[in-house]
Amino acid sequence: MSTTTNKVQTKIAIIGAGFAGISAAAYLSKQGYQVDVYEKNADIGGRARQLITENGYLFDMGPSWYWMPEVFEKFFNDFGYKAADFYELQLLDPGFSVVFGSDDVLNIPANFEELCQLFESIETGSAKKLKAFLAEAAYKYNIGMGKLVYKPGLSLMEFADADLIKGLFKLQVFTSFSEHVKKYFKDPRLIALMEFPVLFLGAMPEDTPALYSLMNYAGLKLGTWYPKGGFGKVIKAMKTIAEMQGAKFHTNAAVTKIEVKENQVVGLASDKGTHHYDGLIAAADYHHVEEKLLNTTQRNYSEKYWDNRVLAPSCLIFYLGVNTRVARLNHHTLFFDEDLKQHSQEIYKQAQWPTKPLFYVCCPSVTDPSVAPAGHENLFVLMPLATDIKDPEAIREQYFDLIMDRLEAYTGTPIRKHLDYKKSYCVSDFITDYNSFKGNAYGLANTLMQTANLKPTLKNKKINNLFYAGQLTVPGPGVPPSIISGNLAAQQLIKHLNK
Questions:
Q1: Shortest CA distance to 462 belongs to which of 274, 263, 239?
Q2: What stretch of H or E contains 89?
């Protein structure tokens, strides 16, 4: 019997159809395995689902920043395609704007020389320092994205690599991100600009390794992009790739139990019945899979372990349809007109609703007329928030008015009077829709003790043919790491099946 025939008879299940699950499905199907993807929701995409309203708005429900385009490109290249075969990318200029006050706004240009001029206009000598900072960040990016993120994190021997050993000091894994930034810049606006990716995707800048300045390189040097039609276009394209390889997707199919015999997954029970499988990738919430779908003796980690993890934030989101144009908003606008450190502490240290929150507004209709009716605006408003916090409607409304007071003052537009669509989304919705651990939006924080091999492992230690993918395992939070995570889990399962 040929190897190909064996693979055709080998059936793999994947739980979760977000970026990690779809990525894993595509790579496994390409190798000839029969792959079934189970998704509990009516639509695939996980946090990157889209919301389409009856009155003509199309909202990306989650990710809105398209950074690290080469990671997306690599995925499509691995199957003989380019991203451009499926969707159109537009470089945003400005990439994003940062509001420190009504008359104090930094528009971050796509052109690097213009960015250097902007820095110099704020702080004398900072253009030269920016170039030095980003030269260091480029090294970290090339090593980090070229090597580190593709390590499965199963053995320290993975790091027995000449470039990694030689560059360990330069990667600054043991240096604080905050300290690193302050060695280069003194102006609080420049410091806030460099620290913002960490707040929105990770931990306090003081608790984050300086390794993650690679995020600054991604955003300031490689540019901020937008896939026309929104992130749903990327999900649809990846699903098309997976289906072309033979993968099958099952929606409204919540998995209720993983069947295990003699340390092997043998099947899954779901809303679609019970079916036999020879291997499993759990790309749903890691904690949920362990807590709800496995017996205590089959889990990698205890509840105490999970309770001691440092989570990246949750968030309060508003999807707003506005029946007029809104002035002064670019595609991405960050409102840093309050104290960054105080908001950070209220997320990570005090776990409370923020006193004076920072927030972010995405206005894709500035770039893409297809996401709102003509003459209307599509607004995605996000406020980072502590996880595991109560979010009743009354509090959501209180913060909606607080945010709108500032947004309306800045734009000069009475947005609340022009709403023809409004929906909120918060901690309890993340739990309901994604079984999200403590309602997190972004996974684990990028702290030193949660980097690389110190993240929850992608292999189940008790069950030989069960692997994990997604934002709670390697390589970490964000869309590009999730795509890579699916690939890593798929390769490890293939290696196991080929033993």
A1: 263
A2: strand 89-91
Side chain identity at 244, as an amino acid letter? Answer: M
CA distances from 103 to 13, 100, 398, 400 (A): 54, 8, 26, 23
Of 226-240, 291-305, 341-355, the least confident: 341-355
Q: CA-CA distance, 364 to 378, in Å (whole number)? A: 6
Task: Give the residue from 56, 119, 109, 114 showing the smallest Cα distance to 330.
Answer: 109
Q: 307: Cβ–Cβ under 8 A, 6 or more apart, which residues?
A: none
pLDDT for 187 beyond 80: yes
Return the closest-CA partner of residue 126 out of 217, 221, 190, 194: 190
Within 8 A by CB and 6+ apart from 410, the residues are 99, 102, 328, 335
Q: Which residue has the higher pLDDT, 197 or 380?
A: 380
Say if CB 21 and CB 289 are below 8 A apart: no
**Tokens at 96, concatenated:** 């994003």
Say what percent of the chain tops pLDDT 90. 88
Q: Cis omega before residue 475 (within 30°)?
A: yes
